[in-house]
Amino acid sequence: MASTHGTSDWLTERTSMSLDTGADRHLWEGGRRYHAYREGRYSLPNDELEQQREELMHILVMDILDQQLYLAPMTEPPNKVMDLATGIGLWAIEMGDRYPDATILGLDLSPIQPTSVPPNVTFQVDDVEDTWVHENDYDFIHMREASGYMRSTPAVIESVIAHLKPGGWFELQEFHWVAEKEDGTIDPNIPVNRYMEHMMSAAASTEGRKIPIVPEIGEIMRRAGFVDIKKKTYRVPYGAWPTDPVARRRGAVLSVNAELLLPTSDKVLGYIGVTPEQAEVLYADCVKMFHNPSIHCFATYYVWYGRKPEVTNSSLGESNR
């Protein structure tokens, strides 16, 4: 489990993030802006275009979940909430609006969140893959669209359970971008799947990590010690080919989001020798797929949630031996 101990100097750096740390500065590469704090830890940019994509993703996810911010079956509204890799902070802000008596903390490598937020919402520049310095009494921790970019999602989930109070809940929401056909089969020749194959190869060869990891989150949570683990999945079409108006709307938004996401992969694909020209052809093939009404395939949106076990008298007795 992650430790909450460290040197006083290190704690000061992590908890009082001043302008001198450079957290408010950014790096530019290939015309895109990236985070400077823990440079290179997260591969996506943090500029205005990426922030627009994040906002579009938030709108899409809220549509998929019928405007629910979470699905975990908490018997009472959460009081102390942490949002990991909060990005532009929309989820945290909406949680603050809906639960004004709760305390909401959003963590991210980039200080790109709004300054005008509900009084119960705060944001902090931090690396959730580092040792956590936070208290261990959170009753809800949330993470969305981040596990595919982490070096070790299992390690982060171990930190999560260590910082939840007994009975607290964790929820992870994320797209599984591999495209499935209407019958549930996977065609490796679908452009999105060729793109995902390249991305998986790049992640494995450069960082030793495995993506996509989303379908395996439940087992990772179980090994970390969570109970009452549940999974909910939602099929979202690539493109606006469905006749159903809701599915058509979601498919159109997903495709726009994917079109914005694709060009951010140049650096990662370059790790395995894919040239910018080759990457551009692959992106173009994906975009053509999105607009081809004869190609019927889906991405899958996953929601995993689970609970930290309650402290029992027997476990207290064992810990005191």
Automatic annotation (TrEMBL):
What is the protein name stated in its UniProt record?
Methyltransferase domain-containing protein
InterPro entries given in the database record: SAM-dependent_MTases_sf
**Which family is annotated?**
Belongs to the methyltransferase superfamily. LaeA methyltransferase family.
Q: CDD domains attached here? A: AdoMet_MTases (cd02440)
Q: Which GO terms describe its molecular function?
A: methyltransferase activity
Q: Which organism is it from?
A: Xylaria flabelliformis
Q: Provide an example Pfam family for this protein.
A: Methyltransf_23
